[in-house]
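pasting for ref
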Amino acid sequence: MIDYKKLRIPKEYCKLRDCVDIDKLYWHALSENPNAIGLLEQNPEKIDWKYLSKNPNGIELLTKNRDKIDWYNLSLNPNAIKLLRYNIKKINWELLSKNPNAVGLLKKYKKKIYWDYLSMNPNAIDLLEQNMDKIDWDYLSMNPNAIRILEKNLDKINWFHLSSNPNAIRILENNLDNIRWDQLSSNPNAIKIIENNLDKINWRNLSSNPNAIKILEKNLDKIDDISLFINPNCDIILKKILDDGVLDIATKFFEINNMKIYFLSQNPNAIEILEKFREYVVTCQKIKWTDLLFNHFETFMLEQNQSKICWYNISHNPAIFTYDYEKIKKEKEQLNKELIEYIFHPSRVILH
C-alpha cells in the first residue's frame, strides 16, 4: 500500500517540479492534493472547494472559508474533527462512520452510526466489540485491526475480502482452502504464502504488489507489463530487464502506450522511477538500442509527448511537488548569518 504521508512536504518549502506544466493541471484534482496547499492559497479563485474539503492538509484554508465547505466530503476528512464537532447538524453520518479519527464523536451519537461503514473503521474496534450484533461481517473482513474479532468468528468471515487484508496472514495460513487467490496476489504481506503457491497466483495483480519484487524478478515472462507500472518498486524490475538484455522481454516492457502512461501517472514514485531509469540506460551495455528505450521514457515528461500524459491523475499525485531547495538554502544562509552576528556581537565577545 502506498503511504502518501511520506510524500507530504511542508507548504512553505513546497514547489511544483520544473517538468510539470501548471497550465495542464486540473485544479479540482489539485484541490485534493495534500502538497498543493501553498499553490492553492496563491490561486484561491481556482480552488474546487468540494475537493478541498477532502484534503487533510486543507483545514486551515477551510476554516477561513467555512461558507465554501462541502460538509459531505468534510465528514470523511480525518483532520476535520474539530470543525465537525462544532457543526453537528451539517455532518454526513454515513461518511463520518468511516472516518478513523471520528470514533470519539461517534460514541456520543451512537444512534446516528452507520454500522456497516463503522465495521470498516480501523479505530472502531472497541465500539464494534461492544455491539457485535450490529457488525457487517463483509466490511469487517477488510478491517486491518479487526483480526481478534475475526479469529473468534471464522464462520462469519468474507474470505474474498479477508484475502486482501494485510493483517490477516495468520488466519489465511491456517485456512488455505478458503483463500481467494486473485485477492491474495495483491496482498503486500502475503509473500510467503504466494511463494509456496505460485501455480495459483494472479500475475496481473501480483505485478502491482510492491513486496513481490523478488518473485517478479524470477518470472519476468509472467509479469503483466501494464500493472507493473503502478508498482512503486517497478524500477527494480525495469533495471533487471535491462541488465538481462533479453530483446523480446525488453520490447514488451519499454514500448510505451497510453495504458502504461495512465498507470505510471498514478505511481507516487513515477518521477524517481524516470530518474533512475535514466541512470540505468546510461550504464546498460547489454541492449544496443538503449537510446530508443530512453527516449520512450524521457518523452513521458517532456514537451514533445506531454499530450499522452494523464494530467488528471498527475494532478492528484503528491510527487509532482518537490522541496524548494533554493528557498531552504537562502533561509539557512540567513539563519547562519543571524546566528554568527549574535554569537560574535561585541557585547558577547570576551577579550583576553
